[in-house]
Design goal:
Layout: E1 7-10, H1 16-27, E2 31-36, H2 40-52, E3 57-61, H3 67-81, E4 86-89, H4 104-132, E5 135-140, H5 156-176, E6 181-188, H6 201-208, H7 219-230, E7 241-244
Parallel strand pairs: 1-2, 1-4, 2-3, 4-5, 5-6, 6-7
Helix pairs in contact: 1-7, 3-4, 4-5
């Protein structure tokens, strides 16, 4: 995809899917703001990789669950490159726990980081994009909003937070469409990142049997889908969720 001349902010991009999205966008020509919560070293390492590719990168640490941090992150991104063309709201967590054992902390963390994080970031970025009458907002969804039984893993609390993102982005997309701003999501299946280590090993084996393609996805495959949605070629696509899960959600 051609992202030359574009500036992009990818939350949660110091590792995993976010890191790969940041690198892909940079390869496609975008200037990239790398974001993490606490580890500047990891974020700077990604920025260094981008610069080694000949790209431009900035690092801003911020907690997307906090509105003030989200607003500062967007403001810093605009200051870094003069504008913000693309927001990828990717920062998130996964909690694998039976519903009856779920805690108040589980609920609060998943809603605050996953759902409020998207709310905060979209709310902070959209006025700038509307003013410029151009922009792309892409959220990271999840296959857990569509598949109830993974053969061992239990995601009821996280499914609520991710499902909220999917339902919220459609009316946001409708509001933003007259201004040339698109709002979409990419919904990954089981992707081979370090986050898989947070999921029960037996559950992972059971879940993989539900994937028609018989393998875990690659972070690069999620990055490719996001690069498409971020590009000019996707200018007539909004309010949609692109499922990248090896056929898992087909049932």
């Amino acid at each position: 995809m051609d992202l030359k001349g574009k500036s992009a902010l990818i939350t949660g991009s110091s590792r995993g899917i976010g890191r790969e999205v940041a690198l892909r966008f940079a390869r496609d020509g975008a200037k990239v703001v790398v974001n993490g919560v606490a580890s500047r070293d990891k974020a700077e390492a990604v920025a260094s990789e981008i610069r080694a590719l000949g790209g431009e990168a900035a690092v801003v640490l911020a907690d997307v669950s906090k509105r003030g941090d989200a607003e500062r992150l967007v403001k810093s991104s605009i200051e870094a490159f003069g504008k913000l063309d693309i927001l990828v709201s990717n920062a998130g967590i996964i909690i694998d726990r039976p519903f009856t054992e779920s805690t108040e902390e589980d609920w609060t963390r998943s809603i605050e980081i996953n759902l409020r994080g998207f709310f905060n970031m979209a709310r902070a970025a959209l006025p700038h994009m509307i003013q410029r009458r151009s922009g792309r907002i892409i959220a990271t969804g999840s296959c857990i909003t569509e598949v109830a039984d993974f053969g061992g893993n239990k995601y009821s609390v996280c499914a609520a937070s991710k499902g909220g993102i999917i339902m919220m982005l459609r009316p946001i997309a409708a509001e933003a469409a007259p201004y040339g701003v698109t709002v979409n999501s990419v919904s990954p299946g089981y992707i081979a990142t370090e986050m898989l280590g947070q999921i029960d090993a037996e559950g992972l084996k059971s879940a993989l049997r539900l994937v028609p393609m018989g393998r875990y996805g690659k972070p690069e495959e999620i990055a490719a889908a996001m690069a498409f949605l971020a590009s000019d070629e996707a200018g007539y696509i909004t309010g949609q969720t692109l499922r990248v899960n090896g056929g898992l959600s087909m049932g």
